[in-house]
Amino acid sequence: MAHIDSPAEGHELVYQVRLPVSSHTFALVTEAIRTYRRQVKSRWAAANMSPEERA
Fold first, then answer.
1. Geometric angle at alpha carbon 52, from 50 and 54, rounded to 5°
2. In terms of CB atoms within 10 Å, which end of the chain has fewer, N or C?
3. Whether the Cβ atoms of residue 17 and residue 6 lie closer than 8 Å to each other
4. What is the 3-state secondary structure (H, E, C) of the chain?
5. Which residues contact 33 (CB under 8 A, 6 or more apart)?
6. What average pLDDT does the chain have?
């Protein structure tokens, strides 16, 4: 009987991609992540406060 190291299904492939993103888009996504973390009461919410919120 042959031994197979990799699973028949559920094998994940990961690709790293660099895409140009405007500063406006980056800020929008960053704020969306912060808002979501606050809503779900993530333990990372306080660590990811914006500079304005820290003041």
1. 75
2. N
3. no
4. CCCCCCCCCCCCCCCCCCCCCCHHHHHHHHHHHHHHHHHCCCCCCCCCCCHHHHC
5. 48
6. 77
